[in-house]
Amino acid sequence: MVYHVDVELDQLLTSFRLSFANILAFLAKEILDGTPVEMNTLIQSILFLSGTIEQNPEVRKIHINKNEKDSKFMEKLSKGLQKMNALEIRHPSGAIYEFKLS
């Protein structure tokens, strides 16, 4: 028996997964210059990196720690972060996000 709530939850999760996949595809195509990379590799190479956030009213600085073992990809990521900074992404408070690989 399928309950109405199960269908709604499944639709929400599917929507979330598709949105996440589209964001990753955008990162690979636009930010990383079309670098062919699998979704799992992209997640492990970028989203699992540690870092710190420094916030003031005008700027929210995101300092991402480099993975020294993957210097080739880190070079591409550094160039990609420069492109993201050029987009001037804003926090709901109005502060501009500034990404930096350190």
3D structure, described in words:
The chain is an alpha+beta fold. It has one domain (4-101). It is built from three helices and three strands. The chain has helices at residues 4-31, 39-47, 71-86; strands at residues 51-55, 59-64, 96-101. The protein has a three-stranded mixed sheet. α3 (71-86) links the parallel β2 (59-64) and β3 (96-101). The mean pLDDT is 88.
Task: Write a compact overview of the structure shown.
With 102 residues, this protein is of the alpha+beta class. 52% of the residues lie in helices and 17% in strands.
Could you name the key traits of this structure?
3 helices, globular, 102 residues, 3 strands, alpha+beta, three-stranded mixed β-sheet, single chain
Oligomer: single chain
SS element count, helices: 3
- The percent range for helix content is 40-55%
Termini separation (Å)?
53 Å
Please tell me what the overall shape is: globular
